[in-house]
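Subject: for your reference before the review

Hello V.,

The reviewers asked for a structural picture of the protein, and I figured it would be easier to keep everything in one thread rather than splitting it across files. Below is the amino acid sequence we used in the manuscript, unchanged from the supplementary table.
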Amino acid sequence: MSQQNEQEFIKVRVEKTASLRQKGIDPYPTSYKRTHTSRQAEEVFEVAEKKNEEFTETIKVAGRIMGRRGMGKASFIDLSDTDGRIQVMMRSNVLDEDYEILDDLDIGDWIGAEGTLFRTRTGQITLQVATFSILCKSLRPLPEKWHGLTDVETRFRQRYLDLISNEDAIKTAKDRSLLVSTIRQFMTKKGFIEVETPMLVPIAAGGMAHPFTTHHNALNRDLYLRIATELHLKRLVVGGIEKVFEIGRVFRNEGVDLQHNPEFTTLESYEAFSDYNDVMSMVEQLVSTAAITLNGSETVRYGEEELDFSPPWPRIDLREKIIQVSGIDFFEHPEVDSLKTAMRAADIDVSQQVSWSGLLDKLISDKVEPTLVQPCFLVNYPVAMSPLAKKSPADDRIAERFEGFVCGMEICNAFTELNDPIDQRARFEEQEMLRQEFQNEEMDRLDEDFLVAIEHGMPPTGGLGIGIDRLAMLLTDNSSIREVILFPQLRSDRTEG
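And here is what came back from the structure prediction:
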């Protein structure tokens, strides 16, 4: 629809709004007390039908007008609400003078309708309207293709239009909410305590990512949006909260693609007296429970794949897997130049990586991740890639760390937490040196306050971080993270500002 045509439609709707006011009708009343949603109305009617009882109850529904048929003495209107749609029938001989008000109604307006239910000759449950109320007069028309909005930019930039016109968008939003509530219930039943930790932090530590920076005027200090909740949650374990979790937003100043959004939601949890094996078992249980809750089965369709989330998931040793897919043994290439040479020989572009851990991460993403389709755990990462994870008692070059993968996509990262404060300080200091040397690569940061905390003693602990957005993608069959985040970050639009 051109801007000129839209302005003409708006002008007509403004005139209709004025017409309603002239008739003594407030087009924007304060409230409406409905008795049933569309689904509830149909359910009570069907119950009466099964009992062979005549339905005489007066009910009140409310929703947005999404369709209108018939003219003259009778009109059928489709009302959309949170539960679906219901048809209402307006008759001139029932509504008398109020029937003329329909001339001032348009697609997109909100109304409330009161009456009784019946089934039409075509079998559709319909509300016979005795009286109705204008609840909101819309001034802008819905897009011309409101019945199937397809423009991707419009769908994400004006999400409300997507929700109005796209039933899949509504279902995804509801399923994501159900996923979060399922995770929360699962963790609570396991005895975990839910907490909230700061979003504005003096040091953006707890992960390898570039932070967003801001300034606090009253304190006159620079702060960062958190890149993880990890270090504050582990402080709580030090304080004696032995099983703790948080579901919340974290922020990373990174690019946008099908799997990345600069702000995203994570579950992080920490459990005293457990290790990464215990955490793996918990992840299997949690994700399979979520799959059943959202899809009714541990087997879920994602694109062309049939994914089986039932426990146990395979445990795949990282070193062995890299050797299998590339022929490279990272133990044999402890230096940057040596690893670069081996990777070039395996036809891997290493032009953008400068550190050893950055190179290995590239090797994993290029050669390993695409092979991980069914739910699995990649276990036992090099210590150089895991500054917050405990070393394996069997080999101090390896950390007790795992990442969960599905369809080549990382959904979780976890480890047996490093609770040796001397080792942790040394690793942080190494990260700081690497950050100065390789400024374009993501490194963790030294947090002195956290080090002081664990110097007071943190028990053996298993930690977990799950990307809720990516898990939502898998369980709702969406290939883009922008489908499962209601308001994803987008490139600037000419109308902004």
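For the response letter, the relevant points are probably these. The radius of gyration is 29 Å. The first helix runs from residue 3 to 22.

Happy to draft the paragraph if you're swamped.

O.
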